[in-house]
Amino acid sequence: MKLVKKLIAEFIGTCVLVTLGCGTAMLVGCDAEKGGGYILTALAFGLVIVGMAYCIGNISGCHINPAVSLGVLISGGMTFGEFVGYVVAQCLGALAGAGLLAGIFSLGRVEDMTGGFGSNGLAGVNGSIGAGILVEIVLTFIFVLTILGVTSKKAGHGSFGGLIIGLTLTLVHILGIGLTGTSVNPARSFGPAVVAAISGNTEPISQLWIFIVAPLAGAAIAALCYKFLEAGKED
Q1: 231: Cβ–Cβ under 8 A, 6 or more apart, which residues?
Q2: What pLDDT shows up at residue 185?
Q3: Which of 56, 119, 164, 171 is most buried (most C-beta within 10 Å)?
Q4: Chain-wide mean pLDDT for the chain?
Q5: What are the helix (H) ranges across the chain?
């Protein structure tokens, strides 16, 4: 029952992340010349993490991101079975969030400024797969490394952990939005891409593999790096 509650928490958290984060992107767009859409979208994603960290953090750890769960798995913070359950719950939550957006924007006849339910893409790097992969690996590395450091028992950040993690997600979005739309979260990319494909826009799902592979790679590197650094601290 305890694991079930954790999975429900992850489902809810990821649903909220996609609904509010991607929903904001859909409303304000991501026009580099104006810049305001960047900041609003970055803040939306970051503030969701802050809110959810203090809401479900004590239940599931508030991963709401398969890359974060992978980092925790490699660090020894969860079992493989728990990891699989978390990823399934997160992807279902992302689908639910994107589905909610589809309903809201369809029923309300609201224009989707991004054209793809806030999905990720390579337009900002001129279609370069290599550049997109590099961006996502680097940004996910920074994000997951921060999470592992902040949540370490030796860190002593106490109740400020959720705020630090949320601000870090905001920071990586400020750079990444104009390049790839900032994934750093395979579930966040999965939900909008699938719903966009159902709605007739297949471009996001054709590039989806990038936003699954690269964040997971970045998270794995971050976890291995942190394990090395933390072990060195003990010596």
Answers
A1: none
A2: 98
A3: 119
A4: 92
A5: 2-17, 23-28, 36-60, 66-74, 80-107, 129-151, 161-176, 186-198, 203-206, 210-234
The residue length of the chain stands at 235
CB 132 within 8 A of CB 183: no
H helical segments located in 177-209:
186-198, 203-206
The end-to-end CA distance of the chain, in Å, is 39
Q: How far apart are CA 62 and CA 192, in angstroms?
A: 20
Query: Is the distance from CB of 63 to CB of 162 less than 8 angstroms?
Result: no
Taking CA atoms, 208 is separated from 57, 146, 184, 188, in Å, by 28, 25, 12, 11
* Phi (first) and psi of residue 38, to 5 degrees: -60, -55
| pLDDT for the residue 152 | 82
